[in-house]
From TrEMBL, chain A:
Taxon lineage: Bacteria, Pseudomonadati, Pseudomonadota, Betaproteobacteria, Burkholderiales
Pfam families: COX1
Protein's recorded name: Cytochrome c oxidase subunit 1
One Gene Ontology cellular component: respiratory chain complex IV
Membrane topology value: Multi-pass membrane protein
NCBIfam families: CtaD_CoxA
The keyword Cell cycle is assigned to this record: no
UniProtKB/TrEMBL annotation, chain B:
Primary role: Subunits I and II form the functional core of the enzyme complex. Electrons originating in cytochrome c are transferred via heme a and Cu(A) to the binuclear center formed by heme a3 and Cu(B).
Lineage: Bacteria, Pseudomonadati, Pseudomonadota, Betaproteobacteria, Burkholderiales
Record NCBIfam families: CoxB
BP terms from Gene Ontology: ATP synthesis coupled electron transport
UniProt name for this protein: Cytochrome c oxidase subunit 2
Domain Cytochrome c: 329-408
Cited Gene3D superfamilies: 1.10.287.90, Cupredoxins - blue copper proteins, Cytochrome c-like domain
Bilayer disposition of the protein: Multi-pass membrane protein
MF-aspect GO terms: copper ion binding; cytochrome-c oxidase activity; heme binding; oxidoreductase activity
Disordered: annotated span: 1-20
UniProtKB/TrEMBL annotation, chain C:
TM regions (residue ranges): 21-39, 45-65, 85-110, 158-178, 190-210, 230-253, 274-293
Domain Heme-copper oxidase subunit III family profile per the UniProt entry, residue ranges: 9-294
Pfam families membership: COX3
Molecular-function GO term, any one: cytochrome-c oxidase activity
UniProt superkingdom: Bacteria
Family matches, as InterPro entries: Cyt_c/ubiquinol_Oxase_su3, Cyt_c_oxase_su3_dom, Cyt_c_oxidase-like_su3, Cyt_c_oxidase_su3-like_sf, Cyt_c_oxidase_su3_a-hlx
Protein name per UniProt: cytochrome-c oxidase
Membrane topology label: Multi-pass membrane protein
Length: 540, 426, 294
């Protein structure tokens, strides 16, 4: 028996493989995982540009002390919306996009488990994005309470705060539906013979990420709902006068927030775990321990949240507990790093662009991991919390982590997506340019933080001037690297310019996605493929 | 140029650490002394000079120079502030320990990776081995990091316990975060009863707006510094009036959020006389960058003298709430109160903006019943307007109300006397 | 291949074709959030935008579900899809559990941490006269240190909440009876018991409305009654909303049963709604114990 794909909607000719609609309907009415994946990726790229321009606004203002371009209110709006847009608009949807494209291909499924709901998850992001970006034009401007939306500052925000809250609700609903889709696809639609422990690492990391999402997105929804009712309906969740507690918001938020940061890194680990073996021409070292490490990181992520709150004044026991638990996370993360390096060890390596990005990821992400570990030591965090050291830490793990991994994924799978090879020099230039610019931007922030420069500051004492100037120069340099990426790498590839890609452009790559032609046809694996014992090849 | 001040005030070349605190070697290595004495032309300026686009980037500001601020940040400072308390120096030791361990691991791990990258590349004829598992090494590299982490956690535990121990303080001071100033109240110990508000010096805010920063203590200069005696255990109790703020003084190694409705505490024992600076480090609205902290550490004698002076000064200033004022006196006083406390939100022109209500033409201000406005001032309104009853005296509230009732287009002619405010407090 | 799509022969995995429903539903929700966000700020056109979006969204959902039901009844959904539905419903319910967990967590934190610390010795600096007593423990206690909360009385577990508990527990039983009837192909009995279940749900909602009326008018217990009122109404209110949704699900399942949908061995829609109902039931038991009783 084979999968039946109702291409044309009801009453259409089911034999016509090219019966899917063309023009805008193809995208708006899409139920095809590849099209929806493309939509997600383009959406997140757009949001990356918007979030990036906001970041450049921040950096331009901070280029030198004194207020030049913005007033402090607008500055806070930029910071807040930069954080929210990057986290919820750029990084998370980008990983969902890659998941949409690759998961069915990797596990030999005909599509995602719920194709229409899949499209719903995507289209829900549009109203949310419109509300978020539109909030700049509402009376009082965009929310300016930081991406963490701490109460009671949120209670002072204008109407855009409510728009933001509802937008986040919708984004949460989208994430939950998307995660359920991914979980069900992975659990229920693997081709016969692909046991869980033979699944590609990317599928594993996404499975675990999806669980994190359905566990914590509703908690965020709870937190911002309380904010909403405190703002408008007279409740006192965060109002001490009525017996509430502003710090309660932080507990609820970070119960979501910490797992959230792993939501943004676990799929990146998955991507890197696909790429490193491919270019080392050697199987992933310690597959099983990779799976267990990912699961441990996810489980531990639920008991470390208050490391964001050391300065709120917790009792000693609380500080110690959260400090120990946080430090423990470096153990499973270390296992991953060591496994990647052991995979490279005695391999037969080449360094095409995907591999460069992956190695760059390991190198720079680890620096961010180490600064995280340093922050987790409560007495040190007392010095560093809410300074630029934290900003440096999380951009090392988010930009050089999540974003670099996404670029790695792009270069690795672009042949499958577009059908053409991206010329190597283009990807290499993009890599080195980004790597250098990234470090010029964010490395000096460690010094600023150690010297005590607080974050979310529109203006700063003059002693901090030099490193800020350097960071600003780096930020624009980094921004231009992404302009280059869009204009020189992405658009030509999307237009199909370049050498046609073979089904399997990387000789060391393994996995079912390389068993279908490039670009991947509209429908793949309509009949569940028969797999060989390794579950990486189709037989017969 | 006036702003170019190469002759900037002399700065001690050594970090402010006395014998209680062991200066760490690395500290000295990192703080290149040359950095600390000579005023330097900031990079932004040099870059901007070189850019043709200079005009775009706020050509308004001229040349400036800056030197290190003792007790505050140093130019191009690379590490934590020189420690002035035992806790701060313990934090620094921890930080250095962590950093060195991490660097060693980093070099080791990536040494292996780069060796592999160079040695095991296809272009060098490397053939891929086919191992992909080894329970032994996997156990080793789980256990070893685990042990390292324990090794890091142990010394940290001691510091956590020490820095949380706020008992047996010699002096207890309550620091109240407000949008956007700090209120200090000496509640126990020498100086009990002293109470004042500390705000960013008004000139600084103007410099910031104009994009013409200047001075080594730019954005750190306050009207009234917090004053404490040296070598005494000071317990700082934090709380807030409106939103969360955070009280940080890097040289003391303290940072404590100030949470409305709750009190939290931290402590320090400054071991060196001098001026120390910090800033508010929890996003608290638009003027978040403009509520610095300046702590003056004095010798025991100087402190006693300061307490004495302060008490006298406070007595002289205290207003009798039953005194009857003329309208002009109240308006003149009210203008000062308005500029210092209200203008940041309601704007000097009284028009407000965003969630901030306009006062000019406001029904509540124009109301014939003075109680309406008194109530708003005392108790706040809508989460946005903070309650002022703890911060302003009856006279000040009466003065500022009279001022707003008779300024801009508001011409009510009404006068509100302190006694009315006092009555409304009940 | 098209031959596989005949009634009774479900495909290996049915993947629906292009559909306008998802994007249209998103348009509806755009107006919902636009309207809601402005409505709470008192913008005059906002309620209309909200209502328009809601109606739009419901119409789209109706079309969407009709199509899905058509596919289901048309035999497109084989065993594998059935399993997909089961997984998805289970994990959806899990996410709902986490949503409630945030509010239960808030109650726990407020009562066991915030209250004592507001009344602690340190905090006497700010709230000198505050006694840390949870409102259920002493008549007249408001749990609010500033004294800004009007005095109120708490809802006694007897009689209303207890009756409601019994209603919900009974509805769980009648639902199970209906399910067994369906399994034995006793459609008439199944439909009868489904109606009883739905009516029990309606009765619960009615009583809860009455309870709120009592709270507001006789106990002076309001949403604005400090942290107690906040957690009380938000927990029971969100629960009530879930009862409402669950009741609607059961209602539609009953109507579908009357149309002849579902068979003894193919009725995931029925089971999904039943799971949801049991989940709502369990949440209520939690509420009954920690909100009303203790
Ligand atoms: C992708 C996102 C991501 C990731 C992966 C991480 C990873 C980690 N983070 Fe980070 N973090 C953020 C995103 C992320 N973080 C963000 C966004 C914030 C700020 C939020 C805000 O306030 O706005 C933040 C803030 C933050 C804080 C609070 C700082 C403050 O506000 O004061 C802390 C404190 O403990 C912390 C710790 C850690 C730790 C211990 C890890 C660990 O997981 C890192 C583990 C990795 C390694 C340690 C390196 C590899 C390991 C080895 C090579 C093995 C050998 C090593 C040893 C045994 C030492 N993070
Ligand atoms: C999630 C991912 C993510 C990503 C990818 C980034 C990317 C960047 N971020 Fe940030 N950032 C956050 C998440 C992220 N950030 C978060 C969560 C916060 C905390 C917010 C808070 O405090 O509440 C934060 C805060 C933050 C701050 C601190 C602000 C403050 O405290 O006031 C700064 C300051 O420099 C900064 C800078 C940057 C820069 C320069 C980039 C660059 O990497 C961006 C590069 C991208 C582009 C430039 C876009 C691509 C190109 C174009 C669109 C073409 C046009 C470009 C040009 C004309 C050059 N970010
Ligand atoms: Cu006060 Cu920031
Ligand atoms: Cu965290």
């Amino acid at each position: 028996m084979s999968a039946v794909l109702d291409h044309g909607g009801h009453g259409h000719d089911h034999d016509d493989h090219h019966g899917h609609p063309h023009g805008w309907r193809r995208w708006v009415y899409a139920t095809n995982h590849k099209d929806i994946g493309t939509l997600y990726l383009l959406f997140s790229l757009t949001m990356l540009m918007i979030g990036g321009v906001l970041a450049l606004g921040i950096r331009a203002e901070l280029f030198q002390p004194g207020l030049q371009l913005l007033n402090p209110e607008l500055f806070n709006q930029l910071t807040t919306m930069h954080g929210i847009i990057m986290v919820f608009g750029a990084i998370m949807p980008a990983f969902v996009g890659v998941a949409n494209w690759m998961l069915p291909l990797q596990i030999g499924a005909s599509d995602m488990a719920f194709a229409r709901m899949n499209n719903f998850s995507f289209w829900l992001m549009i109203p949310a994005a419109l509300m978020l970006v539109g909030s700049f034009f509402m009376p009082g401007g965009a929310p300016a309470a930081g991406w963490t939306l701490y109460a009671p500052l949120t209670l002072q925000m204008g109407p855009s705060m409510d728009a933001g809250i509802f937008a986040m609700h919708i984004l949460g609903a989208s994430s939950i539906m998307g995660s359920i889709n991914i979980i069900v696809t992975i659990l229920n639609m693997r081709a016969p013979g692909m046991t869980l422990m033979k699944m590609p690492m990317f599928a594993w990391t996404w499975l675990i990420t999806a669980y994190l999402l359905i566990a914590v997105m509703p908690v965020l929804a709870g937190a911002i709902t309380m904010t909403l009712t405190d703002r408008h309906f007279g409740t006192s969740f965060f109002n001490p006068a009525g017996g509430g507690d502003p710090v309660m918001y932080q507990h609820i938020f970070w119960f979501f927030g910490h797992p959230e940061v792993y939501i943004m890194i676990l799929p990146a680990f998955g991507i890197v775990s696909q790429i490193v073996p491919a270019f080392a021409r050697k199987k992933l070292f310690g597959y099983a321990s990779m799976v267990y490490a990912t699961a441990s990181i996810a489980i531990l992520s639920f008991i470390v949240w208050a490391h964001h709150m050391f300065a709120t004044g917790m009792p000693v026991t609380g500080q110690l507990f959260f400090m120990y638990a946080t430090m423990l996370i470096s153990v499973p993360t270390g296992v991953k790093v060591f496994n990647w390096i052991a995979t490279m060890w005695k391999g037969s390596m080449t360094f095409e662009s995907p591999m460069l990005w992956a190695v760059g990821f390991i190198f720079v992400f680890t620096m961010g991991g180490f600064t995280g570990l340093i922050l987790s030591v409560a007495p040190i965090d007392i010095q560093l919390q809410d300074t630029y050291y934290v900003v440096a830490h999380f951009h090392y793990v988010l930009v050089a982590g999540s974003l670099f991994a996404l670029f790695a994924a792009f270069y690795y799978w672009a042949p499958k997506w577009t059908g053409v090879m991206v010329p190597e020099w283009k990807g290499k230039l993009h890599f080195w340019w980004s790597l250098i610019a990234f470090n010029v931007t964010f490395f000096p922030m460690h010094f600023l933080g150690l010297a005590g420069m607080p974050r979310r500051y529109a203006d700063y004492p003059m002693q901090f001037a030099d490193f800020n100037a350097l960071a600003s120069v780096g930020a624009f340099f980094f921004g231009f690297a992404q302009v280059y990426f869009i204009l020189v790498v992405l658009i030509p590839a999307m237009r199909g310019k370049g050498e046609p890609a073979p089904a399997k452009p990387w000789d060391g790559a393994e996995g079912l996605e390389w068993e279908v032609p490039s670009p991947a046809p509209f429908h793949t694996f309509e009949t569940p493929p028969k797999l060989d014992a390794t579950a990486t090849r189709v037989i017969g | 140029m006036a702003r170019n001040r190469p002759e900037a005030s002399p700065v001690p070349a050594t970090p402010c650490i006395d014998d209680h605190v062991q200066p760490t070697k690395s500290n000295e290595m990192i703080h290149v002394p040359g950095n600390r004495v000579s005023p330097t032309e900031p990079l932004a300026l040099r870059v901007r000079k070189g850019l043709t686009a200079a005009t775009l980037l706020g050509a308004a500001s001229g040349a400036w120079a800056v030197s290190d601020l003792p007790g505050g940040p140093a130019v191009r400072q690379l590490d934590l502030h020189p420690a002035v308390t035992r806790i701060a120096s313990a934090q620094q030791d921890l930080h250095h320990m962590m950093m060195y361990i991490c660097i060693v691991i980093f070099v080791a791990v990536f040494g292996v990776m780069f060796y592999s990258i160079f040695a095991h590349r296809k272009s060098k004829g490397a053939k891929a081995a086919d191992f992909h598992e080894s329970t032994t090494v996997e156990i080793v590299w789980t256990i070893v990091p685990f042990l390292i982490v324990i090794g890091m956690a142990l010394p940290a535990t001691k510091v956590v316990v020490a820095q949380k121990d706020t008992t047996n303080a010699d002096l207890t001071i309550k620091a109240t975060g407000m949008q956007w100033k700090w209120g200090y109240e000496y509640i126990k110990g020498d100086g009990e009863g002293i109470q004042f508000v500390s705000t960013l010096d008004a000139s600084q805010r103007a410099l910031s707006d104009a994009g013409t920063p200047q001075g080594d203590n730019y954005l750190l200069k306050v009207d009234n510094a917090l004053v404490v005696p040296v070598d005494k255990k000071i317990r700082i109790i934090t709380t807030a009036n409106d939103v969360i703020h955070s009280f940080m003084v890097p040289a003391f190694g303290i940072k404590q959020d100030a949470i409305p409705g709750f009190v939290r505490d931290t402590w320090f024992r400054a071991e060196k006389i001098g001026d120390y600076y910090g800033q508010c480090v929890e996003l608290c609205g638009k003027e978040h960058a403009y509520m610095p902290i300046h702590v003056k550490v004095l010798s025991a004698e100087d402190y006693a003298k300061w307490v004495d002076d302060k008490h006298k000064q406070m007595q002289a200033l205290a207003d009798d709430p039953n005194k009857v004022w003329t309208q002009d006196e109240l308006i003149a006083r009210g203008e000062k109160v308005y500029t210092a406390n209200c203008a940041a939100c309601h704007q000097p022109n009284g028009k407000g903006g965003g969630a901030i209500k306009a006062l000019d033409g406001s029904a509540k201000v124009l109301s014939d019943d003075a109680k309406v406005q008194i109530d708003v001032l005392l108790n706040g309104q809508n989460n946005t307007m903070p309650p002022w009853k703890q911060i302003l005296s009856d006279t000040e509230i009466a003065a500022v109300i009279t001022y707003t009732k008779n300024h801009w287009s508001n011409k009510t002619g009404q006068t509100v006397q302190p006694a009315e405010v006092l009555a409304a407090r009940k | 291949m098209s031959s596989a799509v005949s009634k009774g022969h479900a495909p290996y995995y049915y993947v629906p074709g292009p559909s306008r429903h998802p994007a249209m539903a998103a348009v509806g929700l755009f107006f919902v959030i636009l309207g809601a966000g402005q409505w709470v700020n008192g913008v005059s056109w906002a309620p209309f935008a909200f209502a328009f979006g809601l109606v739009w969204w419901l119409v789209v959902l109706k079309q969407w579900f009709s199509q899905a039901i058509g596919e289901s009844e048309g035999g497109m959904y084989g065993e594998r899809i059935d399993l997909s539905f089961r997984w998805s419903m289970a994990w959806f319910i899990f996410s709902e559990v986490m949503f409630f967990a945030s509010f239960f967590g808030a109650l726990y934190w407020a009562r066991l941490h915030v209250l004592p610390s507001l009344g602690s010795l340190d905090n006497a600096l700010l709230w000198p006269d505050f006694k840390a007593i949870w409102p259920t423990e002493l008549a007249g206690a408001t749990g609010s240190p500033a004294g800004t909360v009007e005095p109120f009385r708490t809802m006694d577990p007897w009689p209303l909440p207890t009756i409601n508990t019994l209603l919900l527990l009974t509805s769980g039983v009648t639902l199970t009876v209906a399910h067994h009837a369906l399994l034995q192909n006793l459609r008439g009995k199944c439909i009868t018991f489904m109606w009883i279940t739905v009516l029990l749900g309606v009765a619960f909602l009615g009583l809860q409305a009455f309870e709120y009326y009592e709270a507001y008018h006789h106990l002076n217990l309001k949403l604005s009654s400090g942290i107690y009122g906040s957690t009380f109404f938000m927990l029971t209110g969100f629960h009530g909303m879930h009862v409402f949704v669950g009741m609607l699900m059961l209602l539609f399942i009953t109507l579908r049963l009357q149309k002849g949908h579902f068979t003894a061995d193919n009725h995931f829609g029925f089971e999904g709604a039943a799971w949801y109902w049991h989940f709502v039931d369990v949440v209520w038991l939690g509420l009954y114990v920690v909100v009303y009783w203790t």
